[in-house]
């Protein structure tokens, strides 16, 4: 993290020439950087932004407000994110309060700001519009926005506190009555589309009742009548918006043929004993699909860590199965599709298909060949679709000619991070160039012996390079014995908070001997840490040589040591690789993965 950049003011914009300059005038003299992500302006918005020396980026691949805000945040460098819309203004009093809070910040704390709206001649202090604080100031690495297409919100982790500032953020939401009505219409359509995709339904009677209740609540119960004629107009337009969004949903559902599987019921199967990369991806997918309103089941062992990780997820039920023959006679409603997430799960899905006729898909996460026995061939041939997480796996599966194949990459996990813990980790290694690795301690897979060899080569040549190794596994004790003479290497074991360690690193090395994709690399990139990895299997799908990292030949400690020295001596290259890698993460978010799987589910039904 760039310690010189304290506050990143971040805006997502499109055609905001009327408001942008006035907004930037209120922050230009005191924030550290201004990040502007434009989604396709055709007016003078970009020229205005450049006049204020903002860092301007463009991304017109609109996937909703939540995703666009996530993209913008990944471009920021500051310790703190200050989110603004172009039609907002920071008052001098609010500026002083923000600077005061940041000078002595509370741990793991974000700050909400009351927003005062100007509406056709007066400030609205009722109608439920005030103070209505919005969370706009928080440590960049602590959280981000959710994926909602409209009405997006900041995700609040369990260990995050939210405190409220006293001074107002001034908001000028509408240029004219026509603008208000037009904007409401757009929001109504986006809301209805999101609900429609979740399988929600409504009636025109419900739309009418919701609209009437909205007016009564705003004008009478929330005392909008005290805001005079502006309060009455605002209540009427809000009631209109409420009717319109439910009416839009009603129109959409009537356009869908009966029986269309907009929200299929999915049964996931993962019979793994532990919790590794495949289980993390299963967890991420189930949580994201829950946001789309799907009913889901998970067939897993009765002691599977997935049960704890997915505790509290809505519309999810567990079915116990400690082996492939168990769990087939559980009582549940009709399942539309089974999704097998690992090898034993594929066998379970085939048996379930034979018993109940339920179609299934499988996800292949490892690059090793499928064992060529009759049962495996039957299981793969009966699958409606095989999903590979990387292009080499997809090419291999396509060569088997057993079932259709598509590619859906794994997702990063947006690991939590506590800046004060990362700072303490750095303090333990003052004046050290800190190199990290994380993974199961299994040399035939992860290649940790190549790191030991590289540490030997570098120990005397560059004494301030230091390696920290995270993870456990069957080769752990042997690794510790082999490296006990090294002063530049430590084995820290498994850590429940890897994000705190990733954020403290100067470099990450990943010399795997085989790797389906390497989703750990995505999590490291998310912390803007440069990467050196093996040019093997699915890793090049993530790490593009000289663009988002450095690739080295597999099983080559000399090449690893040379690459480390190159990045050690070239800070601009390190920073450039890390920034570019961060910018490429949009295709690897949990939301993107879930969207692709959901489209696949629907296409098969």
From TrEMBL:
Domain Glycosyltransferase subfamily 4-like N-terminal residue range list: 276-409
> Which Pfam family is an annotated match for this chain, by its short name?
Glycos_transf_1
* PANTHER family, per the entry: GLYCOSYLTRANSFERASE, POLY-BETA-1,6-N-ACETYL-D-GLUCOSAMINE SYNTHASE
Residue stretches making up the Glycosyltransferase 2-like domain: 8-128
Question: Residue limits of the Glycosyl transferase family domain?
Answer: 423-583
GO MF terms listed in the record are: glycosyltransferase activity
**Which key words are in the record?**
Transferase
User: What's the name of the protein?
Assistant: Glycosyltransferase involved in cell wall biosynthesis
Q: Which organism encodes this protein?
A: Tolumonas osonensis
Top-level taxon in the UniProt lineage: Bacteria
Record family assignment: Belongs to the glycosyltransferase 2 family. WaaE/KdtX subfamily.
């Amino acid at each position: 993290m760039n310690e010189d950049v304290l506050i990143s003011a971040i805006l997502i914009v499109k055609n905001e020439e009327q408001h942008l300059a006035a907004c930037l005038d209120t922050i230009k003299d005191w924030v550290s950087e201004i990040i502007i992500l434009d989604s396709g302006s055709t007016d003078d918005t970009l020229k205005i932004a450049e006049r204020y020396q903002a860092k301007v980026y463009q991304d017109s691949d609109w996937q909703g407000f939540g995703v666009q805000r996530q993209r913008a945040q990944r471009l920021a460098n500051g310790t703190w994110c200050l989110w603004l819309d172009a039609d907002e203004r920071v008052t001098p009093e609010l500026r002083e309060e923000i600077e005061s809070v940041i000078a002595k910040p509370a741990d793991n704390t974000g700050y909400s700001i009351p927003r005062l709206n100007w509406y056709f001649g007066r400030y609205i202090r009722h109608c439920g519009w005030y103070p209505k604080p919005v969370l706009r100031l928080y440590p960049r690495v602590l959280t981000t926005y959710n994926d909602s297409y409209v009405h997006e919100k900041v995700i609040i982790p369990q260990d995050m506190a939210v405190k409220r500032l006293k001074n107002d953020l001034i908001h000028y939401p509408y240029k004219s009555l026509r603008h208000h009505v037009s904007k409401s219409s757009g929001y109504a359509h986006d809301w209805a589309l999101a609900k429609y995709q979740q399988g929600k339904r409504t009636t025109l009677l419900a739309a009418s009742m919701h609209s009437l209740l909205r007016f009564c609540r705003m004008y009478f119960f929330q005392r909008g009548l005290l805001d005079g004629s502006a309060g009455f107009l605002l209540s009427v337009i809000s009631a209109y918006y409420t009717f319109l969004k439910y009416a839009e949903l009603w129109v959409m559902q009537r356009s869908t043929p009966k029986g269309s599987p907009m929200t299929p019921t999915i049964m996931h199967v993962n019979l793994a004993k532990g919790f590794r990369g495949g289980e993390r991806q299963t967890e991420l997918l189930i949580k994201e699909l829950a946001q789309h309103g799907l009913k889901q089941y998970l067939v897993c062992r009765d002691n599977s860590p997935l049960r704890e990780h997915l505790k509290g997820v809505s519309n999810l039920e567990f079915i116990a199965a400690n082996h492939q023959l168990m769990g087939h006679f559980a009582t549940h409603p009709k399942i539309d599709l089974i999704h097998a997430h690992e090898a034993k799960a594929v066998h379970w899905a085939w048996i379930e298909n034979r018993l109940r006729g339920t179609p299934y898909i499988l996800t292949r996460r490892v690059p090793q060949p499928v064992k060529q026995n009759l049962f495996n061939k039957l299981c793969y041939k009966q699958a409606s679709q095989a999903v590979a997480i990387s292009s080499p796996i997809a090419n291999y599966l396509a060569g088997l000619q057993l079932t259709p194949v598509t590619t859906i990459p794994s997702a990063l996990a947006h690991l939590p991070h506590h800046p004060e813990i990362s700072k303490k980790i750095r303090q333990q290694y003052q004046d050290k160039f800190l190199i990290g690795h994380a993974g199961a301690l299994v040399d035939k897979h992860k290649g940790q012996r190549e790191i030991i060899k590289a540490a030997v080569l570098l120990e005397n040549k560059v004494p301030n390079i230091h390696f920290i190794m995270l993870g456990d596994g069957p080769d752990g004790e042997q690794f510790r014995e082999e490296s006990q003479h090294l002063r530049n290497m430590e084995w820290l074991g498994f850590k429940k908070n890897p994000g705190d360690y990733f954020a403290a690193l100067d470099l990450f090395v990943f010399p795997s001997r085989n790797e389906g994709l390497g989703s750990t690399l995505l999590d490291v990139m998310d912390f803007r840490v440069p990467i050196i990895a093996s040019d093997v299997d699915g890793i090049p799908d993530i790490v593009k040589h000289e663009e988002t990292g450095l690739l080295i030949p597999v099983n080559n400690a000399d090449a690893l040591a040379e690459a480390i020295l190159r990045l050690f001596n070239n800070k601009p290259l390190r920073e450039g690789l890390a920034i570019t890698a961060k910018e490429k993460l949009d295709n690897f978010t949990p939301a993107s993965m879930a969207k692709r799987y959901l489209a696949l589910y629907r296409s098969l039904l």
